[in-house]
Amino acid sequence: MSANKFFFVFKDSLIESDDASMSIVSLRNPATRNATKYLFRRSSKKACSLYEVNCFNEQHRSWFINESVCSNGKIFLPTPIDPLFLVLPYLVEHCSERAVPLDQILIDDKFPCTSQLAEVLPADRLSLIADEKRAGSILALKYNETKALEWLVSKCHRLSKVIGTEEGPTARSLNYIKEEKENEKDEDETGTLHTALGIVSDYLSLEFGRKLSVALGFPEDENISKKRKSVVDLESAVVKRIKKEENHDTTPIKLPAAEKKVSAKAKALAKAASGSKSISSFFKK
Questions:
Q1: What is the span of the domain harbouring residue 129?
Q2: What is the CATH number of the domain that holds 137?
Q3: Pick from 157, 188, 226, 281: CA 20 to 30 A from residue 208's CA?
């Protein structure tokens, strides 16, 4: 059996070129700031694209690969991701007050591959969330929250249109609403936009998700914080349970003492002996 093999599902366009190379690296998740796996694809034309690696896992699963058995039954599915989501937290952290060159922004001691994000970020894309300051050949960036929110609002509206045209559980539920309620068009648009907000917010910090909700015209969305909090609570509960199992930290249960049954013969002997002295009393002075 082999545990060092992994099962990936790729789109044909990702692997049809023989001169393309792919590498998997760890970068900070833009929402949780925890380590997450991403895939860089580079071609001979110096074109580079970024994908997030989604993992589907079920217990007791293996793969038969040719003549071997892969005990790692996970399925890895790379999907495209906008690199601006990953760059946004670094812009907020490093250049909210002053303009800073990009190579000084994408620095993370714990995740050295963060600098590779510059390869998938054309200058025109960065101008969507930052102001450009040029001095000769040096290009510096200053974070612009107004631009960033406009970019995110536009992304939500585009995604909302896609959701409205796709068939699936969301589309069926929206069709049901359409049949049951008046003002169906406005309600459908609101529903798809709210769904788009939830998807985009998965790539944003909790604070930024709330700002985006307000920018879209929704009241401050408590569902975003509840969803994020539920994920954190679930992770915490799993960790505590694992530690408890490892340390065998269990609380013993005290059971009440069982009553001793006394026979009728024992009761009669006890009663007869209650008025007599013990034999040892005759030997005392």
A1: 7-143
A2: 2.20.25.530
A3: 188
Cβ burial 208-240 (10 Å sphere, 16+ → b, else e): bbbbbbebbebeebeebeebbeeeeeeeeeeee
pLDDT in tens, the chain (285 residues): 445 677 788 777 777 666 778 889 999 999 999 999 999 988 877 678 899 998 888 777 888 878 878 777 788 889 999 999 999 999 999 999 999 999 999 999 999 999 999 999 887 899 999 999 988 888 899 999 999 999 999 999 999 999 888 655 555 455 555 555 545 555 677 889 999 999 999 999 999 999 999 999 987 655 555 555 555 455 555 445 544 444 444 444 444 555 555 566 566 666 665 555 555 555 555
Residue 194 forms part of a structural domain: no
Specify the length of the chain in residues: 285
User: Beta strands of 43-144 (E only): which ranges?
Assistant: 48-56, 63-65, 68-70, 75-80, 100-101, 130-135, 138-143
CA torsion, ordered 181, 186, 192, 194, to nearest 10 deg? -100
82 backbone dihedrals φ, ψ, rounded to 5°:
-75, 120
35 inside domain: yes
Into how many domains does the chain fold?
1
